[in-house]
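Inputs:
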Amino acid sequence: MGGIKDKVAIIGTGVTKFGEIWEKDAEDLLVEATYEACKEANVDLKKDIEAVWCGTFYTFSGVAGTSFSDPLKLFGKPVTRVENYCATGMDAVRNAAYAVASGVYDIVLACGVEKILDQGSRGLPGIESMFPDPTLSIASAPAMFALAANRAFKEWGWTKEDLARVAVKNHSNGARHPKAHFRREVTIEQVMNAPIIAYPLGLFDCCAMSDGSAAVVLTRPEIAKKYVGDKYATIKASGMAVETLFPWFRPTETFLSFPATAKAAEAAYKEAGIKDLRKEIDFGIVHDCFTITELIDYQDMKLCKPGEGAALIKDGVTAIDGDFPINPDGGLKCFGHPIGATGCRMIVELTRQVLGKAEGLQVKDAEMGFAHNLGGPFSVGTVTIVGRP
Amino acid sequence: MVGILSYGAYIPTWRLSRDEIAKASGIPIVMPGERAVAAWDEDSLTMATEAGFDCLNAIDPEEIDGIFFSSTTSPFKEKQTSSIIASALDLRKDVLTSDFTNSLRAGTIAVKAAMDAIEAGTSRKILVVSADCRVATPASIYEQIFADGAAALLIGENGVAEIENFYTVRDAIPGPWRRDVDEYPREFEPKLDVKYGFMKDLPEAISGLMKKSNLTPKDISKIAFYAPDPRTYLGSPQLLGVEMEKIQDPLFVNVGITGTPHCLLLLVSALETANPNERILCASYGDGSDAFIVKTTDKIEEIRGKRRGVSAHVGSSKTLPRYEKYADFRRIRETAWPKWSKVAHVMYWRDEKSILPLYGMKCKNCGTLSYPIGRCCIVCGARDNYEEVKLARRGKIFTYTLDYLVGPGNTEGDGINPGVRAVIDLEDGCRMFLEVVDCEPTEVHIDMPVELTFRLLNERSDFKHYGWRARPVRA
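Outputs:
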């Protein structure tokens, strides 16, 4: 089986401010992120971009490639709309990467956008329409992950305080990120005493509903040099696994590990040739949609053994100045989670870190990092590894 | 001889004290005690189904030839309730389904129709289920009097009791009524109704029955009958010329008056403690009166304690803290119930077997039992290689959460928030994901034993979708 290690270069990144952006619509956000990425890549959208993959979950300009072509008025080019639950953004990048790696296109754009607030809802808008069977129970997104938290409490003795450490760490990082939704530090007590959303997850255990957009320009390394010199990163690996929308009906489900993450990570490490993860990779971005998710992510990403996730953060290993920083950007906890944008924003963050451009929250000597984007009730796992060429 | 083969009952978990109702309405309590309140996801259909399950405990549903449902509160104006119950109970496809409605006397009429079918030899076993969920006009005295519940009798030959005789009296007295546009039953002159309706029709039916049977009150050990209010019950020994001991406890103190099923519920209650060869008289009232005599046989002792019946349901209750919870349960005050998105009804039709009688799939390749039924096994992926298996009704919680975001209600104080969602391992090994009802969120924990309960799931696309939820195991 072949791979894409070092066959794809990221030459441009763009990301909007994330947050409650009432005054802008999806079109505004998509135009901002796309033009920022093209500018950084020194490419012209209309002249140089040959194809586009646009990740977006909700519908604002058609359930089609028109989600991108209409806002940008970029007509007559191949545009694919990508949906894969909360892993939509990273899957858009993955598909775009394969397109340039295959040699069919030289320069492509992958982007993601979501205007969740316009949908008007507490929690994910219209979640019941994702579960169209009127007789099967529906759970909110925090409830899906709370099922794992209660199991971890029972099995490993984890506590709400263990979860709270994730929020405290990520808020501490995000407070320094100019584009984050929440730029305020929180205390353990604040997190633990917040109102319950889905027991045992409280308000600060959950990421917010936010608006935002991100974009990356991809090409092959030999072409990259013509546009940006040596200011580009390469994709070392891209792993993905899809499980089920109904983990609660699967008798083998432990709720202590998300198999989609573990399988995507295994595939990515193999493709990148990673033998000693903690030594060869410098930092990571994981899908901390909820605090419990980050702790389980540590384990599924093989940073530690099952049950040791809570100790890993307690020992400071995943702090921005720790041995293996996780979510130096502040994660979903601080950026919120515009579904289609998140995975794409993770690639932007990885790229800026390995190029040493993460001002204010630069991980020391960051040469290679991974990003993990998880969709659905642990249904879709995607892992991308990005490093210096 | 035609008689009763089995009995069952259902009284919902929730009680509301009459003091709470009095506080909310400003009307003094008519009598101390509490009334039974159907949960927000219960109605006459679900309660009758639960009573049917209680009655059919350890009886093969294949043996049932007919199911008669009776109520004044059918969930649909046009759509048969008994056919949905028949599916949930997993009865045969050629079972005769019929709804008896529009009168508080409909329950005893259904018993008579079942008796006639057995006697005619066209059916061997007919399940009679009766339920009511009558919502009283808010701030009326009937909020304290009405209650929700269901009863079930399996009618056939050579049972735990024989039905010796039946007598009926019709009456066009206005009584209480509810037009198809009315939300609540309208009140006829109560005193006139009792004096010229109840006090005339009930004794007429009972004396007619006694005369037909050549019996006197001395031959009767208990009289189980419907009366419209507790005061009328108190005056009934005099009216019927019997001692107070012969009046079957009307369950007013801890249940309330359930409407159509009430006299049958009291009959079930009497049968639970009856000895062999006792005669129990059962009488209804509503647009006339029906009365019938039941004589227990030796088999009455074989069934004792094997049904939850009235006693276990009365003995396992939880209290609603406030009147407002009742108002939310019955939707008589405006709350932020969600606007469900549309779904295709066709799904509900196509998957009936897995939804109503609750069948799962057992993979013949790897042995996994799973739900819902699909073409391929959820564990090994084997295609079209399974058998459909009826799932266990009990299990325990594997993991759970209290969901404040998505539920039938979305606001604090709607009586149903937070929604308890649990991953449940059924006793047969099937993994389920169900909402847990009839419980305080604080009592839920991993490994908690639960049992399944048949409920109204939602009204997406303006249809009533019924199916299964879980609740803590009742006594």
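Remarks. Residues 319 and 333 of chain A are 15 Å apart (CA to CA). Chain A touches chain B at residues 122-123, 126-129, 132-143, 146-151, 154, 196-201, 244, 246, 248-253, 255 (CB under 8 Å).
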